[in-house]
Amino acid sequence: MNILVVDDEKNIAYAIAQILEEQKWQVTMAYDGQEGLDLALSGYYDVAILDIMLPVMNGFEVVQKMRANKIETPTLLLSALDEIPDKVKGLNVGADDYMTKPFSAAELVARINALTRRKGEVIVHDVAKYVPETEYVVKVIDRHVEKAKNNLKGAAIVIAGGYGMGSKEGFGMLYELAHELHAEVGGSRAAVDAGFCDHDLQIGQTGVTVRPKVYIACGISGAIQHIAGMKESGIIISVNSDPNAPINAIADYVINGTVEEVVPKLIKYYKQNSK
After folding, report:
1. What is the reported pTM?
2. CATH code of residue 169
């Protein structure tokens, strides 16, 4: 089961994700209403769990826009707003269920199971009755094989940058380090969305999954979606100025410092010591 969780309080979002992942469910997270809506419109989810008091766009608006765009994903509003008018409004704008915080993990799982049981009957049509076989004929006009832009999936060493790299120019340091280590460069979704690197470099649940021998995460906080795409790496090294960054919890080694001070030192060291 694939579930979308939208909550701007990251500690709550992580707690919800942990509960759902214990059920062996896939979780995609967003931290504001617009990001949540974009994910709901562009992907398939069995259930969406939305907070109401979200930045950019509140949960009521997200549900309304989902329904206006014919997105019928079963939706559960999970909010600290516990007044009857709030619950009525949530259900009236298109939500399928409403829970208040604090909540029970067992009740949350039960409500999700109940929502998925409500799905309608799937009708399979015989396409041949409506479309003749001649419509399936395809003429190959040209063949074009393009060399892959990167080898992230097959790389022994991956150096990944996050929003903490600060800019597209900041990513230049990672390419320089990658050159010295014969590594590939990747990025987090936050870095891709900020325009720091190309989309084909995105590592995570909505990007590429990598399993290198060594994974160096530079300026990456460690959202669950990103960790899902690199957690099976052999050795994980985190370079981060935040000692409490979630990615540090799964890292084998943590270098506590800014990427601006740490990465140039790594480049200098490997230039001096590599043959």
Report:
1. 0.53
2. 3.40.50.1220
> How far are the Cα atoms of 106, 164, 199 from residue 218, in angstroms, in the given order?
37, 7, 17
Residues 84 and 13 in one domain: yes
Model pLDDT for residues 208-263, shown as the tens digit of each residue: 999 999 999 999 999 888 998 999 999 999 999 999 999 999 999 999 999 999 99
For residues 94 and 66, the answer to whether their CB atoms sit within 8 Å is yes
The pLDDT tens digits of the residues spanning 30-81 come to 999 999 999 999 888 999 999 999 999 999 999 999 999 999 999 999 998 9
| Domain limit, last residue, from 93, 117, 141 | 117
Q: Is residue 148 part of a domain?
A: no
Torsion of CA 176, 224, 202, 264, to 10 degrees: -10
Domain assignment present for residue 151? The answer is no
Question: What angle, rounded to 10 degrees, do the helices at 84-92 and 59-68 form?
Answer: 20
Those residues with Cβ within 8 angstroms of residue 248's Cβ, 6 or more apart along the chain or in another chain: 222, 238, 240, 242, 254
Q: State which residues form the domain around 221.
A: 157-273
